[in-house]
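User: My collaborator sent over this chain with a note saying "see what the structure looks like." That's all I know about it. Can you take a look?
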Amino acid sequence: MNIDLDALVQQNIKNLKAYKVEDLQEGIKLHANENPYAPPEELIEAFQARLGQFALNRYPDPECRRLKQAIAQRTGRPEDHLVIGNGSDELIQLLLQIFCGPGDAIVFPDPTFAMYSLIARGMGLTPVPVPLDEHWDFKARDLLAAAETHRARLVFLSYPNNPTGNCFSRAEIQTVVEQFSGIVVLDEAYHDFARQSFISEMDAHNNLVVLRSLSKIGLAGLRVGYAVADPKVVAEINKVRLPYNSNTVSQAFAEQLLREFSPVERQIDVILKERERLAGELKDLGRLTVFPSDSNFILFRVDGDGRSLFEALMAGGVLVRDLSAHPRLNHCLRVTVGTREENDQFLAQVRKALA
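Assistant: Without extra context I'll predict from the sequence alone. Here is the result:
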């Protein structure tokens, strides 16, 4: 039987475009905000020593107990305040599923992480973007007004913000947390580079959910994220979370990394030093506006044709992220901080293209 498959697809799905990133088969990939360094050798060796203990013919621990213990030790939050996700993207989807019904609205500053809007639209929800100012920051009164007008159920705040790289004003975020009567999701995927957090506010505000990710610090291939939330919120997430959403290997390696974090911390320190060097070198080139960053990437605007520079870099074997599709990010590119050698090659290609 052949049927009209298109007729069966929901209209809100038809209206979407798939999240797509250009890729290179060979070359330097500075487009996905990954850690450019492999997990430290001592972590690899410790993990390999445990491989023989895995019962891979059995399902993983559905509660991720050992991983939660490691997270609790690092964050200071009780284990019943934690839930593990297959990346933080899954947790975003689960929060929308729990707190929103068809047609409900969510609010977020704009530009920001594209998945808030994409997941919401795919679920038949209404995303409400609130434009950032010229400093890539927002005013709480504007965000709260939009939330009230649209009767929003959730507010999403990326801290630091992707793709702009900066941390929003802490005072403005605090006002939103204190005055918004729905759920405030603080997406702290880049926390390890900013070293700023709102986790300390959670005892006073049960509407606050903090998301974290291990993808940016070395485990992007294992897809490990977690949420820190009031136990009542965690209980609701566990009702809709798939029972084996985190596999055995991901749980074990993530636990190992969190318990022996010093080698990763040293990698982060190197990335932060390279971020400052890279930003300074880009500023010195001229014809570029380089925005301040609290994350492991740098946003910059090209004085000219950003797409041409993107394509020239691609031709030279360097992949960055072209953000020009967003009206506020016209001629903007985003580069992930790589190793010193990768950054030098990127800078050489930029110089060549601008010349």
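A starting point for your reply to your collaborator: The chain is about 40% helix and 15% strand.
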